[in-house]
Design a protein that fits this description.
Layout: H1 22-73, H2 75-90, E1 94-107, E2 118-131, E3 136-140, H3 141-144, E4 149-153, E5 159-168, E6 173-178, E7 199-204, E8 212-223, E9 234-237, E10 249-252, E11 257-264, E12 277-281, H4 282-295, E13 301-302, E14 305-309, E15 325-330, H5 335-338, E16 346-350, E17 353-354, H6 358-367, E18 373-380, E19 383-390, E20 392-393, E21 405-410, E22 421-427, H7 432-435, E23 443-447, E24 450-451, H8 455-463, E25 471-476, E26 482-487
Antiparallel strand pairs: 1-2, 1-4, 2-3, 3-6, 4-5, 5-6, 7-8, 7-10, 8-9, 9-12, 10-11, 11-12, 13-20, 14-15, 15-16, 16-17, 16-18, 18-19, 21-22, 22-23, 23-24, 23-25, 25-26
Length: 494
């Protein structure tokens, strides 16, 4: 019950302030805590976001100001000018290469009776002029292979007939010659000086779009394990390379040809550029081209050894770093035998250059001049030794020079059962071997009537064959069937 007793306070004094009930003080505390939590949940992210935007905007303004200064100083123009000048230096020497192969059994509609020309299979690629005085043009062999007609289109559209000077199936290079006025030629560059990350340009006619220029970097060098060509040490680039670029130049920013664009690594679905283009390095291409012009064929160096990677040696490391090529066999009367090399030696250096694996050794040997004496370093029983070796010419089996396949020996000790064999290690696309049905993995049972199971037996059997009659092979398919093939047979033969 409320009290009605009078309050005792003076007339000159203000009445006392009422005290806050405990419940109201607690409410204010809760409200403060909720506001604090709301600021933590919503306020801080907002402030952070605005700060981030401000920082990003600041960076953007700073970059724009820096670019404006670089542009004012002419640095941007000079950077772009490198690409422009490299393009201008080489582009006039880049040509479109069109080849046609006539099919006599597919007559052209409306053709006159007896016209020897029928419907034609056409191929498109690129090329680069490397000698304007003599009219020499470099392209890929697969661009002009088996062509009945070759036409080269110059930079301003002039079309000139071309003839094949010579081709090398093992590197997929060919040299053409045109008659007519040529005003410019490209210059070879040094592919050995390239490093990963260097800028390069690809120029060619992808999808018949003449003088298309794309830019990228060197993604890798010495790609030698792709089994595209018999001799390979590809430059890999992400410069866009597409069908029609084959045979065109890969150019560095000094305007020199450092490679011949040859292949793309792509999926079966797209068949187009996916950032992995492959070019034959100029160090290899130039040597092959000069051989083709001078000799009509490629003269390759020869050591005369069978080799395998040092890393394949089981149970021990034959060199300090595990790299090099172990000699598995030494050919009789070969340069290696004359130099005193023996099976088990590990070659690590040749002609002043490291050779860390068999492919490197094989490529380097092939490029050495016949008759030259070069130093060779090898390990024997763990000790490094040196010897001079005189390079000989790789003995050629004429019929194999253009058949487009390679075999390898599977040794008895490498497989269960202890029985070795020869098998097809590589078949080049569109080669005579591929056209006759030879496939990767087939076993070679016999050459003609001579059964073979080793590389030496195979080589001896080939030596007595007539190249003009084709190469008779008895092979075993992966499903066990025995099939007879005649590789490189005359028309109508098999």
């Amino acid at each position: 019950m409320a009290s009605f007793e009078p309050q005792d306070f003076g007339l000159d004094e203000p009445p006392p302030r009422p005290t806050t009930p405990p419940v109201r003080r607690g409410f204010l505390i809760i409200l403060f805590v909720l506001c604090l939590m709301a600021s933590l949940v919503y306020g801080i992210p907002y402030v952070a976001e605005r700060t981030g935007y401000a920082w990003e905007a600041g960076r953007s303004r700073a970059a724009s100001e820096a670019l404006s200064k670089l542009k004012k100083d002419g640095i941007i123009a000079r950077a772009s000018e490198l690409f422009r000048m490299a393009t201008v230096a080489v582009a006039p020497a880049v040509v479109r290469v069109q080849s046609r192969k006539f099919q006599a059994n597919r007559p052209v509609p409306g053709a006159a009776p007896g016209d020897p020309h029928g419907m034609a299979d056409q191929n498109l690629g690129s090329g680069v002029i490397i000698d304007k005085e003599r009219g020499f043009v470099v392209t890929n062999n697969h661009v002009i292979k088996d062509a009945d007609e070759i036409v080269v289109s110059l930079s301003l559209g002039t079309r000139l007939p071309a003839k094949l000077v010579a081709a090398d199936l093992k590197t997929d290079l060919a040299v053409l010659q045109v008659k007519g006025k040529l005003d410019v030629a490209a210059q070879w560059g040094d592919s050995d000086a390239l490093d990963i990350g260097d800028w390069v340009l690809a120029i060619g006619s992808p999808f018949a779009l003449d003088h298309t220029v794309t830019a990228g970097i060197v993604s890798a060098t010495q790609r030698n394990d792709l089994r595209i060509n018999e001799y390979e040490s590809f430059i890999q680039t992400d410069a866009a390379i597409n069908p029609g670029n084959s045979g065109g130049p890969l150019v560095d920013l000094s305007g020199k040809v450092v490679g011949i664009n040859t292949a793309i690594y792509t999926s079966n679905q797209s068949q187009g550029n996916e950032g992995i283009g492959l070019a034959i390095p100029s160090s290899m291409a130039r040597q092959v081209v000069e051989n083709l012009i001078k000799n009509g064929r490629v003269v390759r160096g020869y050591l005369g050894v069978g080799i395998e990677p040092a890393s394949a040696v089981a149970g021990r490391q034959p060199t300090p770093d595990g790299r090099g090529s172990v000699i598995t066999a030494v050919k009789s009367e070969s340069p290696a035998e004359k130099a005193g090399l023996k099976a088990g030696d590990v070659i690590v250096r040749l002609a002043g250059k490291d050779v860390p694996d068999p492919v490197s050794l094989r490529n380097l040997t092939a490029g050495l001049g016949v008759g030259t004496k070069v130093p060779l370093s090898y390990y024997r029983n763990g000790k490094l030794q040196k010897v001079d070796v005189t390079i000989a010419e790789l003995p050629g089996i004429p019929v194999l020079s253009s058949l487009g396949y390679r075999v390898r020996e599977v040794k008895p000790g490498d497989v269960p059962g202890g029985v070795g064999w020869l098998e097809v290690d590589q078949v080049l696309p569109n080669s005579p071997a591929a056209q006759q049905g030879l496939q990767l993995g087939m076993k070679i049972i016999a050459v003609g009537r001579t059964r073979v199971s080793t590389k030496d037996e195979y080589d001896r059997a080939l030596a007595g064959l007539d190249p003009d009659r084709g190469l008779p092979l008895l092979v075993q398919t992966p499903d066990g069937r025995a099939v007879f093939l005649r590789i490189g047979a005359p028309a109508g033969g098999r």
